[in-house]
Amino acid sequence: MRIEEMVRGWRQAAVMLLAMVGVNVNAAEVLHEERSVYRNIFVTEESGRRCLLFNAVRGERNQTCMNTANPREFVFHYAKMSMAGLLVNPNPQNILIAGLGGGTLPTALHEMFPNANIEVLEIDQAVVNVARDFFHYVENDKVSTHVVDARVFIKRAGLAGRKFDFIVLDAFTGEYIPEHMLTQEFLEEVKQILTPEGVVVANTFSTSALYDHESETYRAVFGDFFNMKMSGSGNRVIIAQQQPLPNAAVLRANAQPLYEPLQPYAVDILEFPARMSTRPDWDQSRRVLTDQFSPANLLGQ
Amino acid sequence: MTETAKKSLLQNIIVCAGFINGFVIMTIELLGGRVLSPYFGTSVYVWGSIITIFMLSLSLGYLWGGRLSSRNPNPNTFALFFLLAAILSLPIIFVGEWTMTQVFLSIEDPRYGSLVAATLLYFLPIFFMGMVSPYSIRLLVSSEENSGRMAGLLYFVSTLGSALGTLMTSFYFVLWFEIDQIMWGAIAALLLCGAAVALIHRIPVKDTSGVHRYEN
User: Which of B36, B43, B172, B181 to mutate to test the interface with A (most CBs of A within 10 A)?
Assistant: First the structure.
């Protein structure tokens, strides 16, 4: 087992080395490479699927993908699951999205709610450039992007008394976890900018000890929340609200009118209510993450 | 205790203190990223600010420590550096949040915000930790021909301490303890170094002048 891991590690190292000396180990065609202060970003295309990658070598690290024949379609489960927030707040007017990726989510929400104000936070200017140039991300008077650390923006928004009714936290690259955005203090700051009927949708992890710690942290701040998973996805989505959560009947009722509008995005919202559970399925004795204690990257090993 | 035994004990303690000093500097630097992140984020420039301020305060500490060592070098002054570094680290624990809130409110740009906050919190303690290295070389060097050797030894132990401090903090301490608990550990280690040097310096030395006269 240990030896297997070692072998896998060495193989990865060898593949990375090959990539560094310019040997193309990825079958997909690299359309573009964007230099970034954080990590270089690659845009690849293979059999009609265009992807944004933070690491060109490991195929499973696709950050976001787009079906070139149908750019509106959501390719990944976690992106689809983000739409579950609409079951709790079906008509958002002030939307905040932390983490741009390819921009599929803000684009879809803008098409569905053209009057809603949408603000997107992205720490890396290079991601914004790539989303604009390769993923049809369009900014206009309703959709704006801030190149900023989400925690800094949210803290300032709280001080300015701003409120949002649909907040998506999706700032995780899968490789490195921003530890200051998993803490109780951060979630309190998020809660402060949330309207009473507003909803927080967080795309997080479903494996490792971090799952337990993170779940306990969300519960400490928001109380009960919906936990949503789909088979074939390593992600889970947390859906939380300040006021008590709607019951299953309300979720099902809210799903009906959303079914048609969500069709172009390949999101089958009707199957979502059954996948949303408030039952804790984690170790509830785990410690809450705080600004003083947040070794998320070590816990995620 | 004889003069030579005391001298050798003091030298060993000074070398250990150099190791611990290097360890503590990197522990505090790595925690700095976590301390600042709730206010200024983890963008690349936040680390840039922290590393800049640590390098700057260390460099000025080296300069000043070296200058001081040319005037009446003695272990008490050396011990005082540790005491001051420990005391000046206390504001990081007690007024860190308040300081960062003030900076956050008055400076919009997180680049300059993190630079100012890092200066206010870390400049002084790290400056005194920087004074330790050149001063300890002065205390260890007894002749011109062993000066390079002693400087090499000091660089070795303090940089090795820094390497271990980095590793232990990022791999284990943050998993085992809260940030403030680790800071208290660092402060206690600094105080221990200062106290050990000062106490050993005070040990009375057996008068060996009689032996000398007999031999004559």
Answer: B43
Burial of B198 (0-12, 13-18, 19+ CB in 10 A): middle
**Residue-wise burial string across A145-166, b where 16 or more C-beta atoms lie within 10 A, e elsewhere:** bbbbbbbbbbbbbbeeeeebbb
Question: In the CATH scheme, what architecture does the domain B3-204 have?
Answer: Up-down Bundle (1.20)
- Phi first, then psi, for residue B139 (nearest 5°) are -70, -30
Q: Which of A181, A293, A297, A301 to mutate to test the interface with B (most CBs of B within 10 A)?
A: A293
Q: Measure the CA–CA gap between A39 and A15, rounded to whole angstroms.
A: 18
Q: What is the ipTM of this complex?
A: 0.86
Residues listed for chain A: 301
Active-site residue, selected from the candidate residues A124, A165, A170, A212: A170
Q: What are the domain boundaries of chain B?
A: 3-204
- In chain B, how long is the greatest CA-to-CA distance? 77
Structure tokens at A295: 């070794």
Q: What are B158-170's pLDDT values in tens digits?
A: 999 999 999 999 9
Tell me the two tokens of residue B155. 């660089």
Distance of CA B180 to the CA centre of its chain: 18
Q: Where are the alpha helices (DSSP H) in B41-109?
A: 44-68, 75-94, 96-106
Domains and CATH numbers, chain A: 2-67 (no CATH), 77-299 (3.40.50.150)
CA pseudo-torsion sign B80, B188, B15, B204:
positive
Is A169 exposed, middle or buried (CB count within 10 Å of its CB: 0-12, 13-18, 19+)? buried
CA separation, residue B39 to residues A151, A171, B120 (Å): 7, 17, 14
How close, in Å, is residue A277 to chain B by CA atoms? Answer: 30
Taking 70 as the pLDDT cut, the residues of chain A under it are: 1-27, 55-62, 173-176, 233, 301
Sign of CA dihedral B155, B156, B162, B166: positive
Q: How confident is the model at residue B208 (pLDDT cuts 50, 70, 90)?
A: low
Sequence-distant (≥ 6) Cβ neighbours of residue B21 within 8 angstroms = B82, B129, B132, B133, B158, B161, B190, B193
B104 neighbourhood in chain A, CB within 8 Å: 155
